[in-house]
Amino acid sequence: MRRLILLRHAKSDWPDGVADSDRPLAPRGREAAPRMAAHLAEEGLVPDRVLVSPARRTQETWDLVRPALPGAADETVPQLYEASAKRLLDVVRSAPDEAATLMLIGHNPGLQELGHHLLSDDDRDGLRALARKFPTAAVAVIDLAADRWAEISPGTGTLERFVTPKTLGAEEDD
């Protein structure tokens, strides 16, 4: 079995004249990211490997999450920026097999579409949860029936949990 953790970047700012890839986190995002990190650590949801989009807001999110998840190897992956679900799936399939639990820190709509795409039709609750909204700083944990990342295919996953900052008492859900 493989476990995929999808973390959408925390709430970002939209400063005038700043390119999309250079947008920083907003104060709400700086509050929510460590809260989500603490939850992941408390629940034992610690990835072996973390793949991060090169966008500033994803890098800042990882900087705030990293201290709670010691030992996770990380890598900036340019293909994660503005990626479609198909491109994200290609990145997941190329992950090293020694990483049983993989985390992607990226953007919507790609993360939400990937999560939805991976879930089994039998996982009706999971499909409904991911169809509604994937807010900033939200985490989807998907268990996949595969021995190797290259074997991951659509419809083989089960949503183990979906957590948002709002469910943890923050007001982030945008």
What's the arrangement of secondary structure elements?
Layout lengths: L1 E7 L18 H16 L6 E4 L3 H10 L7 E4 L8 H9 L7 E6 L3 H9 L5 H9 L6 E6 L12 E7 L11
Parallel strand pairs: 1-4, 2-3, 2-4
Antiparallel strand pairs: 1-5, 5-6
Task: Give short descriptive properties of this protein.
174 residues; alpha/beta; single chain; 6-stranded mixed beta sheet; 30% helix; 5 helices
Structure overview:
The protein is an alpha/beta fold and 174 residues long. It has helices at residues 27-42, 56-65, 85-93, 110-118, 124-132, and strands spanning 2-8, 49-52, 73-76, 101-106, 139-144, 157-163. Strands 3-2-4-1-5-6 form a 6-stranded mixed beta sheet. α1 packs across α2 and α3 (85-93) packs across α4. The longest helix is centred in the first third of the chain and has 16 residues, at 27-42.
Q: Helix/strand-derived class? A: alpha/beta
What order do the helices and strands follow? EHEHEHEHHEE
Count of DSSP-assigned helices: 5
Task: State the end-to-end CA separation.
Answer: 32 Å
Q: What is Rg?
A: 15 Å
Mean pLDDT: 94
Q: What's the total number of strands?
A: 6
Cα shape = globular
Q: Determine the strand fraction and express it as a percent band.
A: 15-25%
Spatial arrangement of strands, main beta sheet: 3-2-4-1-5-6
Helical proportion, percent range: 25-40%
Question: What does the largest sheet look like?
Answer: 6 strands, mixed
Low-confidence stretches: none
